[in-house]
């Protein structure tokens, strides 16, 4: 399936050997990796349901060598094994990694992770951590230190309370092969992501009883047990939520990313999430930034620019930072739907470190996210984007294909390239990378920070919940852990 919308063209990823749609399956919750030394090579991981009447899913994966025009789905990572929550990433050499959640079937009695590696652009994958060797747990995410400092190629992982061996965080000091005993993060920020600044400091963003940005300055020191020496509450203008337009899932998670442009905005810390504001029943895409190492953050800024935004869904918000400092954000949006359910992928970018954002543009055709559910009634919990100098590479799920066997559309994974200019622009091909080029950034205005809150180094941990086979919508304002996304 190829689905053009103006200048944006979506290409299906979960296809058969002839490049055709696989009728009757479901594929959702996708993460994309791009080879920075050859931007035409990408890999996407997703949750693969071969039988939509069952909650059994496996680790789907696909790759492209022609900038996303065609995709190959070579099969799941490990046939016959229950897997979920796929997270992929690339180091600066173009080696891909795939962190996968493992559990038992048909009853999920544990949640553990293992790490896979590909040195050929996602064509084949090797289990490098051993069975469940990354330890971890549910709703996991990871990042790679690419700074060249003492923590070079360390991998850092965070997860939630439904886990393998306690804690909420652990690390690997040998590029994902062996993993240390998990430790806690104060105030327990979960459902978020991680990044490393140019000085090797690790930052974790997520939501506990509020959103937090937690820093570890010694995680990069291999001989020391990591500690989180700065934990700052962050006002995101609302809370994460579940249910609603995505009945059995989240409506978004928290994404944290750091500017690595080397220019005036270098080491800015950015956080973005689709949140449920107080007194509202639908979500907004909200953004904050820190220019002082996470000590203070700007007031939350709404990125979706529709007039009747309070009554519409803006969900699965995610973003990335380009090597030149540009910010690219995408999300699902119902602003054009009379039924307030049919969604489109929307795009906006910022060239001034998030102070202002471009007019929102639709980047996909409309689709009904309530069709094609597997046994689990959701279209995953997130989508992802990776940016380069001229645009962003997006992996998302949509229901463009019609299944004549059940009279409904079905969930599939798609790739689309977004770029500044929007509707009316000329399509921009993926450029050839120049790994030795020095990126630059445009000087930007400084947002006045909020008052500096007192770092909270410790907190009373919440009990680890008993793993559940189906997630329960999260309570607010204190979110309840959700397993097996």
What would you note in describing this structure?
The protein has 485 residues and is an all-beta fold. 0% of the residues lie in helices and 34% in strands. The protein has strands spanning 2-5, 8-12, 26-34, 42-49, 58-64, 83-90, 96-102, 112-118, 126-127, 141-144, 155-158, 169-172, 194-196, 202-207, 211-216, 230-234, 242-243, 246-250, 255-258, 269-275, 284-290, 301-302, 314-321, 327-333, 344-350, 361-362, 384-387, 392-403, 408-418. It has a five-stranded antiparallel beta sheet, with no helix packed on it. It has a four-stranded antiparallel beta sheet with strand order 6-7-8-9, with no helix packed on it. The protein has a four-stranded antiparallel beta sheet with strand order 13-14-15-16, with no helix packed on it. Strand 1 (2-5) and strand 2 (8-12) form a beta hairpin. It is globular. The relative contact order is 0.16. The model is unreliable at 424-483 (pLDDT under 50).
